[in-house]
Amino acid sequence: MSLTDLKRRKPKPRKELSLEEFIEDANNYAFGQPSLSQRTKKKHKAKQTVSLKKQSSKIFRHATFTLTENSIAQLNQLASDAKIAKSRLIRLMIKDFADKSPQAIQQLIDESQD
């Protein structure tokens, strides 16, 4: 490091943010989006994209669960064949399972080997 690196520089002027804008900016950072202060788009478009991000963060949550080696292999194969993400495939399976009648669910459980 040279002495020029230690030279004091003028701070860049920062846009004053309200508390809501600060929180939205933090959400943008978490999603890898540009900061509100760096955006040049119109304000109402920014609000729309932020509200969509808030909705998506409410829809998806991280989950941890245990699967057998056989289930993991089957999931990998199904996701590869369908060319979709494993998490999306699991969501589709859950939706399909939830749409079944209680009798059909019980039959699947009874036939299950896990």
Structure description:
There is one protein chain. The protein has helices at residues 19-30, 43-59, 69-82, 86-98, 102-111. The protein is an all-alpha fold. Among the domains are: 18-59, no CATH class; 84-114, no CATH class. It is elongated, with a radius of gyration of 24 Å.
Key features of this structure:
single chain, mainly alpha, 114 residues, 5 helices, 0% strand, Replication protein RepA
Distance between the termini: 61 Å
Which structural class do you get from the secondary structure elements?
mainly alpha
- What is the radius of gyration? 24 Å
Quote the beta fraction.
under 5%
> What do the pLDDT scores average to?
79
Q: Could you spell the SSE succession in H and E letters?
A: HHHHH
| Uncertain regions spanning at least 5 consecutive residues | none
- Largest sheet at a glance? none
**Individual helix count:** 5
What is the total tally of β strands? Answer: 0
**Rough shape?**
elongated
What portion of residues is helical? 55-70%
Protein name: Replication protein RepA
